């Protein structure tokens, strides 16, 4: 027969090992929950793109000759930046002498240059205009919202629309049909205010008879 003391000691050892394992699991779970709660929320696609655009523009200012600070940046520098981006464009913009000028689907390649699409530039300016103010810039001094930038984007839109044979006009929203209930017409005005129409006068009806 085995001594009683040996069996009790083995049970105690098992209990201690189980409790230690439970403590390890709980501590690891709390650590993971703390790491999850402390991690910053994931940025949306718009916010991530806006941050990349802002960093790209900041790098452009640093590489400018001479280097420019954000406080000295004007709409003229923004126009230079937009023209600089044209070399990375992927949109074919046909010249007027090109046989495919105004053709939305050219049947063959041509040597016309690639440019940044108007829609991409318009969205880029919108993100940079918001990022400028989020980084301490004053709205009245925002170079991305200057009139010269709006005129440039309009020129690019018109030029690319004619060259590519694509309309950039926004679709007009359909107005909802007029309501059949018009207040103030007929008996609907009396019922809408909670006052019921009076019944016909019996005396006047008897006199008419």
TrEMBL record:
Residue ranges, compositional bias (Low complexity): 7-39, 183-196
Cellular compartments per GO CC: nucleus
Keywords from the named record: Developmental protein, DNA-binding, Nucleus, Transcription, Transcription regulation
PROSITE patterns hit by this protein: ALOG (PS51697)
Region (Disordered): 1-47, 164-209
InterPro entries on file: ALOG (IPR040222), ALOG_dom (IPR006936)
ALOG domain span: 45-172
Short name of one Pfam family: ALOG_dom
Subcellular localization: Nucleus
GO MF entry, a single one: DNA binding
Keyword DNA-binding annotated: yes
GO BP, one annotated term: response to light stimulus
Family: Belongs to the plant homeotic and developmental regulators ALOG protein family.
PANTHER family listed in its UniProt record: PROTEIN G1-LIKE2 (PTHR31165), PROTEIN LIGHT-DEPENDENT SHORT HYPOCOTYLS 3 (PTHR31165:SF95)
Name of the protein in question: ALOG domain-containing protein
């Amino acid at each position: 027969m085995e001594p009683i003391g040996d069996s009790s000691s083995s049970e105690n050892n098992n209990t201690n090992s189980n409790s230690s394992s439970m403590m390890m699991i709980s501590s690891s779970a709390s650590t993971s929950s703390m790491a999850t709660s402390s991690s910053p929320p994931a940025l949306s696609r718009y916010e991530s793109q806006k941050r990349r655009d802002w960093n790209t523009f900041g790098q452009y200012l640093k590489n400018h000759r001479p280097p420019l600070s954000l406080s000295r940046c004007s709409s003229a520098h923004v126009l230079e930046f937009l023209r600089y981006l044209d070399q990375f464009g992927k949109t074919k913009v046909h010249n007027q002498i090109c046989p495919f000028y105004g053709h939305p689907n050219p049947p063959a390649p041509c040597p016309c240059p690639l440019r940044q699409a108007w829609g991409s530039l318009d969205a880029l300016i919108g993100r940079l205009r918001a990022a400028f103010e989020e980084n301490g810039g004053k709205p009245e001094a925002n170079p991305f919202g200057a009139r010269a930038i709006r005129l440039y984007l309009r020129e690019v839109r018109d030029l690319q629309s004619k060259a590519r044979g694509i309309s950039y006009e926004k679709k007009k929203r359909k107005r909802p049909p007029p309501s059949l209930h018009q207040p103030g017409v007929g008996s609907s005005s009396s019922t809408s205010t909670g006052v019921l129409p009076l019944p016909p006068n019996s005396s006047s009806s008897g006199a008419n008879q």
